[in-house]
Design brief:
Helix content is 59%, strand content 14%. It is an alpha/beta fold and 209 residues long. α2 packs parallel to α3 (76-86). The longest helix is centred in the C-terminal third of the chain and has 67 residues, at 124-190.
Length: 209
Amino acid sequence: DGSYSGGSSLGYQEFLGQRALLVDDNEINLKVLEIRLQKKGFKTTITTNPKEALELLKSHTFDLVLLDLVMPEITGLEILDFVRKKHSAIELPVIMTTAQLESSNIVSAFDKGANDYITKPIDFKVTWARIRTHLTIKRLNEDLEKKRQESIEHARMGTLVDMAGSVAHEINNPLTIILGWVQLLNNSVEKGSSKEKILVGLDNIFQSV
């Protein structure tokens, strides 16, 4: 089916464990890119089949997509359309690869939500610089979102604590009054007070509830 999955790492790497999907109808290009990215600590999935690329995007989670612009049957632009219906440009960076320098194709890719593009034959130093840029943006955005959620949670917990304190205060006041009347009633009973005085005490308790 023209696909191969794998991944390896060489010690600590900046983007260790990041998942990259590489899509290109040229298997040699794929293999070269895969080897270079695996050396950077990436877990890679590659395919030369555009239809399989769509299935992989439906069933798997990726951190980066390197996508050939021109392929038979299904173009890179069509796959890009599918990706952008599910993920924003920050959530899932897509870098187009193309041997064509026609500005119209590149502009179309950007219009559809591509993050960047690289030309073939691929210069890996340039490719790596662009990959690092977009994954760094992605990571910073995730960190900001995490902090935003933590702030919301802290604010929510603070509100709950304030509410609990307010409720406890509202409950505590009637209880204090009731306990006072119960103590007075108890004293009245011990002293043999009249039935009428005891009933007045009970009535005061009920009114405090």
